[in-house]
User: Fold these one by one.
Assistant:
Number 1:
Amino acid sequence: MSTTEALLAASGSGGGGSNRVSIDDALALHAGEFGRWQLRHFVLVTAAWMLEAMHTMVMIFADREPAMWCPAGDGRCGDRCAGAAAGWEWEQGSGSSTVAEWGLVCGERYKVGLVQAVYFAGCMMGSGVFGHMSDSFLGRKGSLQLVCFLSGGFGLLTSLSPNYWVYVAFRLLTGFSAGSICFCSFVLATEPIGPSYRGVVGTSTCYFFSGGIAALAGIAALFQSSWRILYIVSSLPSLAFILVVVPFVSESPRWYLVRCRTDDAMRVLREIASTNGKSIPDCVGLRLDDEDDIIKKVVETSSVLDVFRSQTMRARLMLLVIITFLCSVVYFGLTLNVVNLKINLYISVVVNSLAEMPAYLVTAVLLQHFGRKPLTIGSMLLSGVFCTTASLIPNVGAMRVARMACGVVGIFGMAGTYNLLLVYASELFPTVVRTVALGCKAQGSQMGAILAPIVVLLGERVPFVVFGVLAIIGGLLVLCLPETMNKPLYDTMAGMEKGERSSKRGDEVATSNSLI
């Protein structure tokens, strides 16, 4: 069957009902926008965010520089850069970190930033691949399952690295797969949720990422003597997720619908309704939001080229990638910059991760009142101001605490931005290209993350200056994006463009009437 015939067949059947409605209407009117089914599904799927947090932030602990000591006594050892040859020893043993095992200090210190940048380069490459697979033949659930399997496997192999360059290769492969976990999970978790709750629930996904960072800090504190064991312990949960969680997760009904599998979409919606204590009448079927034009075209494909064919979508995507890039440099930079704060590493990481959680709560509470755009601008400017302030505070004595406090507020604001951009981006694009667009956004994020470790190496003051300037620029760029609050989640490109034109005309009429 050709794609045209498949679409006509799906369109004509509409799931067997004569009264065809969109998925948003089916959820709002019949199945329930956010009930027991969506809550269970959301928690199970979003738990995957903890996995990406562990794969990403394990570098903070595995690549740390432990303390050195001189067994012969103070002043009796030679140059610290010579390490054991000059009589120095690592306090927790040479196997405590990659830095200690391979001597990544002094002239070799750049290799720490290099492997971290390579990991994010892998994330950037994988985002495009798995974003396309999620929107096309593999689906949301299949893509999430695949990236969890690959990241867990490569994480275990990383623990066996015999030398630095093999370690770099495995971190690249881990990033290639792990970097797609969050956005694959986000789309699968939020697409079955109705429009009234999608924004608030969507901002709750990042709690799991912060929780994963805090949990990793606790695990790392228990395995300070072996970076290899730390990689094993932080990778096994990804494989356990596939066995324990994935079997109880459903595919997105929106993906089923745009892939012309209307009966499967209706089956999921009826399951949602049944679990929520509701029912969908037999006369109700499903329709795409541009069904009026369905006879005139074939099934829309799902690649980034389709986004670039639309002037509106193209401009949005480019802005979104740039803003996310700037946000990522600041967010990951502040997270990795704990090594420059000269405070207990494990405590600093936990404090930073806990500082993110109030940001998610604040954005969730304010989201429905102020919209996506004003909050995103405000959170980026907040982070920029406090990062700039931190650059002016000396890193000595009690002032270290004040500097850390400014950094915490900075990460508070940028964590809120990161959270808001997920919801914002998912509403800026239709279902057929949503994961592709989020994949491009993720690539922008990974490009920023590649730069972040390099910025951290610039010293104690310069990183804060860079973070402050980039955050302010990002906040100003958000002014160019449209507001999406209380707008429908469109299925197709044509449906979105048609709906937005109608909405714009309605706003103009309302404005003119108010002036009269």
Number 2:
Amino acid sequence: MDELRQIHARLHSSGFAGDKFLTSEMLRFCALSPGGDLSYASTLLLSAADTMLSSWNHVIRGYSQSDFPREATLVFLHMRRRGLRPNEFTFPFVLKACAKIMCLHLGRQVHADTLKNGVHPVVYVQNALMNLYGSCRRMDEVRRLFDGMSLRTVVSWNTVLSACADNALPEESIDIFGQMRSCGFEPDQTTYAILLSAAADLGCLSFGRWLHGQLIGSKLVLNVQLGTALVDMYAKCGAVRYASRVFERMALKNVWTWSAMILGLAQHGYASQAIELFHQMENGLVEPNYVTYLAVLCACSHAGLVNEGYRFFHEMVEEHRIDPTMAHYSAMVDVLGRKGCLHEAYHFIRSMPLEPDAVVWRTLLSACQLHVAKDVTGIGKDVKRILLELEPKRSGNYVMASNLYSEEGSWEEAAKVRRVMREEGLKKVPGESCIEVGGRICRFISGDESCINFEDICQILDGLRLNMKIPYSNLYGF
């Protein structure tokens, strides 16, 4: 940048400062080069008397890819006020910025602008629009755009697959993948990474394994993104040994890979191995991030390691300068609560620099329910009151409060809570479970008798229940 500033000064002294092409090239370097300076680019652009459209596109693109995407939208608005007409290279990055900041209102205005300027049919403009609506959780708009596309690329398919995955629609993403293959499109690395995420969300190990096999057969390079997605999928599907194998065979790993493996171990009862792997990561000079520490705190919670939890939390803040999020505070409350340190957990919440949200209080209430005998100071009652004030319409809070009263033997209080639920029209969310059978995910919802083979399932369950009641010695004749 020092050299560029000298060049800029020389252009001024030699009378070439108004050259639009030279200005555009300087802006391209400032906005898009790793050694550039977006702030300098913005100042240079806005102070220039006459500029090319490409100059604005460079700065908008630079900001849309940075940590300050809102600035891209402001530069775009400056451009429109000056009367410049955006082209098909402008809109994708403006829409990307809108998606990053989840600004649906502005995104819709930009969408209208694409129609007015005749660039709406351009495939990468439509891809950017689908990304915008997917980020803003408007899947109806995503499908409408996708279904109306006259031309699609692999990026188009990946965009709609990603929107489904990000909006908790993993089954729909698998259906769309089938359509993609039927239309003759070959999946790329991004496609596989998205689908592995969908398999992980579903807990569908057979589909995840099938994807892994397809990936091997495709001869695609197993990059860090794909390797991390495989580790995450196997870990979330409970196949921790397979996750570990993939992890060990990866030549390159980043912080996300390590974090996925640490979390997988922590969530499946391998707390000591998770912490040991975290130390290996530190010894390998990989800088942990906020997700890594969430994984480590999860390990401490499952293993009841209170002192270690405090140490890791302090290390995250003091040594790595990572600002704790609400999730970190909730994880630390879980570490204390699971161990029965209710009073300590309560004071930890009260000392938080942030205003604790309902999740933090719910974590403590769950711990109070687990350790009723240790709640001698009535922390549970205080937490119930706070939680019901924060979320008066959430039925789950009332159910937890009622269960806690029942655990204490306060049947009248439990009945009162149930009565309040009825009066407020709140209903308990029915329990749900799922199981993978023959590569299909079968869902079961409490009270729902409409599932296929319902009567046969009930007969099998009755038989299992009967067998569980028979003494072991009678069952085997001992």
